[in-house]
Amino acid sequence: MSAWEIIRDSTPQLLAACIAYTIPIAIVSFIIGLTIAVITALVKISPRGGLFNIVKAIFYFYVWLFRSTPLLVQLFIVFFGLPYLRIAGILPDGIRLTPIVAGIITFSLNTGAYASETIRGAILSIPDGQWEAAYSLGMTKRKVLWRIILPQASRVSLPPLSNEFIGLVKDTSLAASITIVEMFEVSQQIAAENYQPLIMYILVAAIYAVICSVLTILQSYLEKRVSRYSVSN
After folding, report:
1. Which of 55, 85, 132, 187 could cross-link 204 (Cys pair, CB 3.0–4.6 Å)?
2. Considering only CA atoms, which of 14, 12, 7, 8 is closest in space to residue 183?
3. Is the pTM of this model over 0.85?
4. Which helix (H) or strand (E) segment is 7 a member of?
């Protein structure tokens, strides 16, 4: 079988896996991760003390843990390790998750840890005068945050968060390590059948490159739209 025939026959299978698993896992994980990131960032910049410091410490530990350990190790712990977390009377069989659920949980937590620092930095980059001006108009702290600070912070954080999503799309290839039949796993299965791993890995790399290139173009378009809006206002 020629290289062209391998590419012709394999591409539909890879694209099907991409549509069924790779892209959905990336999108769902990013949405959940972004939600976690916003909550984490708001907790970490909160001036409240007392018992709330314990909550802050938990979130600081969470961010440190997921930023300090490899994503592949995190996937293995969640999928292969948690079933051995047996607690008599509470978790006699440990925590057993399906591959997709384990993957989404891990990708979401990992994304949330990294994105939280991006969002936290964006919020802190807004001048204090913005808060003071809003307070002078009689706005509450919550209204200032949601109506003035976060909209501006979202524009500041758009480029790094876009890069985070593009990186997440590529990181979904690690899901093959916990038996999720996403695009990279399919390429490995096909390579085991046709004994042409080089062609298959180049092909799957090319598909990832196309997807990420499209996302990069979309990112540039969004940045231009946002920058034009911010200048006009």
Report:
1. 187
2. 14
3. yes
4. helix 3-17
